[in-house]
Amino acid sequence: MTVHDTIRPIRWDADRLWLLDQRALPAREVYLDYDDPAAVTEAIRDMVVRGAPAIGVTAAYAAVLAVRRRYAADPAGWRAAVAADLAQLEAARPTAVNLHWAVARIRRRLAELDGDPVPALLAEAQAIEAEDLAANRVMGRLGAALIEPGTAAVMTHCNAGALATAGFGTALGVIRQAFAEGRLGEVYADETRPWLQGARLTAWELAREGIPATLLCEGAAAALLRSGRVSWVIVGADRVAANGDVANKIGTYGLAVLARHHGVRTMVVAPTSTVDLALADGDAIPIEQRAPEEVLCCAGQAVAATGVAAWNPAFDITPAALVDVLVTERGVVHGPTREAVAALFERPPS
Ligand code: MRU
Description:
The protein is of the alpha/beta class. Helices cover 39% and strands 19% of the residues.
């Protein structure tokens, strides 16, 4: 059984951070290199790198760049400058909790360190990357086991693939694994306006790995789900609240409503680094609002009538009641509740 797993959007090499520029895909595969933490903050905001776990891993490496720069400039007083760098990083994108989770972990590690902090911090960032990859492989196996052999098709939204993580992916990790195990025939992917993560990124990953993929406009999802061809909607998450409510790419909520109406199950695949036990429910999750131009334009060209406004929330909240299964690296929760989500943290990783 071959599980294709070749895409790595984030690399630490030659003492620099390298990010696969996701804005250029699928036309061009270009890695941009960084040694300035402020430039990494911009890269996160501008979608060079995106997807909650990938943003977390990137932030960890950006912290290494910040500490290296500030410690070299002022070995006695670097901590205040690094604190400001980390605050800027955290403000880059508000919804993906992995960013805040990774920065909090880096802060805890920094508090333990004396002398030159760079080697230990680099090891911490590399551990965050390796743990994300390992979690995705575990979730891939747990989620794939839920997909009945002979399943004709599943549907996904946005890109929760290798590109959105350290590698392998969350929702696409389950899909990769299920396809490799011969359980699954094909994948339908929403194009995912306005950034077209489905058309540009998910379709690129699936085509590259030989998994049959069909693209549709979001507006076609209801008709597809009504057709009976799709058994599961499988998505990632940017943040899961303590009660199991899920923030994910705008349009996920609508898909989950449609899925429930048509008897299709919804699977959310997310590592526990995406679960925010501090927030009681989805209403407390901050939703990023992005520039109207992203909706008013397409591929840099204005497409809307001059003078019209645009509403551009990047994420929506899917209530836990619409989630059939939450797959984490610590186990699977059927019908997430506050108690079941809390219990995940009492178990060791699978
Ligand atoms: O705006 P994006 O592209 O960062 O949004 C990404 C998503 O919504 C993903 O589904 C989510 O981060 C999970 S990625 C494993």
